[in-house]
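Hi R.,

Here's the chain you asked about this morning:
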Amino acid sequence: MTERYPNLIYSDFGRRFDQDGFSVELSIMKLEGSPEWTLEVINSAGKSFVWEEGFENDKDAYNKFLQTVAEYGIYFFVYQGTVIQFPWR
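And here is the predicted structure, written out as tokens:
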């Protein structure tokens, strides 16, 4: 018998999010049979931000995204990671 890989299930909360002239793609998904949802945000440069924590449901993941935008603004996803910090010697 061939082992079947689980399907990837996408939430209806996933969408393009626009604010202050900037856009990001919001993706909320889980593996079929998994209890946890994953939250990912991708900016226009293709940089991906994935939360390490899983979420009990897709709405909790969406609310976490909205909370992050309310707290830090969309700029958190747009400009984050454009400077590479080198360790001091």
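One quick note: Residues 82-86 have pLDDT under 50 and may be disordered.

Cheers,
M.
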